[in-house]
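Ticket #4471: structure export looks truncated?
Reporter: QA, pipeline team
Priority: medium

Steps to reproduce: submit the single chain below to the structure queue and open the exported record.
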Amino acid sequence: MLRSLGQMPVTGSDEDPRVTGLRTAVSRLRRELAAHPAEFRDRAVAEDELAALAAMTSDGNPEIPRLRRSLLLIAGSIGSVSALSRGLAEVREAVELFGEPPR
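Actual output as written to the record:
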């Protein structure tokens, strides 16, 4: 959960649990997308943005505006594919845990 709420990361790990959750959600959606048999016009966009999100989680300090931009591109790319809606919702929820970008 959130450190700002006083909750600590999993014992033995000092990684932000939001990053771990985002990494898990992105990985799951990437697998679901890879297994999805139908081709659609913006599939490459979704794959590229999911790869970008995965890369952002590898250093443990993702940029919030970039997270939100990637989420919008992914949602626009696969939002109408109902088989991927649950995975997309999990990624959206994981991104929302990072809060709003500073103005």
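Status: closed, not a bug. The export was complete when the record was re-opened. Leaving a note from the reviewer for reference: The helical segments are 17-35, 43-58, 64-78, 85-96.
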